[in-house]
């Protein structure tokens, strides 16, 4: 008998917004605005890096991958949420749930490793400047950029395959706003010990190791920066890391709270807030953080806008 025939559940109900059923239209407008800002901000970063030759460096190459991941993470969760707000039914089918869980796990796992790779790039640039071109050659950058994608998808494939073994015995209410592994494990009625162990192991190797590597890299970077004699030199070196540090803090901070919550769990309201911060708000903030604090990105944006205006003016005269 197939897995789908063993489970009595054909759809799940999200309880994350159940406390505010009369505000769906307002939530729809807020989440739509967040999604549009996320798409626009990350697309601008991605396009600028492709168009401006001054941004054709390893740091911005990895940033373009980060922008792509943020678009993907937001697109896996927000559109379904928007549809549910309009229909005023917070539901998702069994197959859609597995699909959402697979891609969300793939993209978030990939982003954790990409952030660690970006920390290594800053380490190589600041601590090993004479060897930087060799350490971050075109071939190395390509490997470091695409290996996290493979690792993220492989990790999520394992979790999703194990999740197909779960049965739900008529319990279909998920204390969450999208399909993710922890809330599904909480409502499964068969033994989920293997799934739980796999989540803990993956949390360590995908999230924990990436986070520890990032922290170690920045400890070494900070030590090197403090050895720089000039204040201007220290400021310049640290400014190249500041944006990345803020993004790392946001991503790993929210991820740790989301995937390592106590067995008793948080309140439904807290779960909803954490989930929203992790997969909806953070992807919107990342391009804003990089653009607001980065002179090169701002300069590239002004250059592209200036070239577009000149081109438009030229066509108008013609």
Q: How much of the sequence is in beta strands?
A: under 5%
Look at the structure and give the mean pLDDT. 85
Largest sheet: 3 strands, mixed
Helix content: over 70%
Ends: how far apart? 71 Å
Shape: globular
Looking at the overall shape, the CATH architecture is: Up-down Bundle
What low-confidence regions span 5 or more consecutive residues with pLDDT below 50?
1-7
Q: Please indicate the count of domains.
A: 1
CATH superfamily: Rhodopsin 7-helix transmembrane proteins
Count the DSSP helices: 11
User: How many strand units?
Assistant: 3
Structural class, by secondary structure, is mainly alpha
Name of the level-1 CATH class? Mainly Alpha
Task: Describe what this molecule looks like in 3D.
With 318 residues, this protein is an all-alpha fold. It has a single domain (20-309), classed as Up-down Bundle (Rhopdopsin 7-helix transmembrane proteins), CATH 1.20.1070.10. 77% of the residues lie in helices and 3% in strands. It has eleven helices and three strands, in the order H-E-H-H-E-H-H-H-E-H-H-H-H-H. The chain has helices at residues 3-6, 24-51, 58-87, 94-127, 132-135, 138-163, 181-187, 193-226, 231-259, 268-292, 295-317; strands spanning 11-14, 91-93, 173-174. A three-stranded mixed β-sheet has the order 2-1-3. Helix 4 (94-127) packs parallel to helix 8. The longest helix has 34 residues, at 94-127. The radius of gyration is 22 Å and the shape is globular. It starts with a helix and ends with a helix. The model is unreliable at 1-7 (pLDDT under 50).
